[in-house]
Amino acid sequence: MDSDRRGQWLRGVLDICVLALLSEGESYGYQLAQALDAGGVGPIQGGTLYPVLLRLQKTGLVTAQWREGSAGPARKYYRLTDDGYAALRAGGSAWLTFVRPVNDIVTKGVTR
């Protein structure tokens, strides 16, 4: 897939994906990047992910807390706030409303 296109798509949905992952429980950046990759989104660089996490933190959708690591450096753990859960419900619903007709249109075109 064209990396420019993938990047454009990611910019539109990465916030929602991160919120959805954090709805499963708190996590730190590297762990989120691994989960995104394992989920099929592909590799996400820190230079892409950490600005998203900072923006989500500044807007009050996540909180962050530094914790000492048992076998390594301290990690910054992120957790959804009540506003984050609300944003996930609203944004996730809006995304699903958008993507369903897009999938239908593209599927029809590809299968012709």
From TrEMBL:
Record-linked InterPro entries? Metal_resp_DNA-bind_regulator, Tscrpt_reg_PadR_N, WH-like_DNA-bd_sf, WH_DNA-bd_sf
The record's section on Pfam families has:
PadR
Which top-level group of life is the source organism from? Bacteria
Q: Where are the transmembrane segments?
A: none
All residue ranges annotated as the Transcription regulator PadR N-terminal domain in the record:
18-89
* Cross-referenced PANTHER family: PADR-FAMILY TRANSCRIPTIONAL REGULATOR, TRANSCRIPTIONAL REGULATOR RV3488
Q: What is this protein called?
A: PadR family transcriptional regulator
List the top taxonomic levels of the source: Bacteria, Bacillati, Actinomycetota, Actinomycetes, Micromonosporales
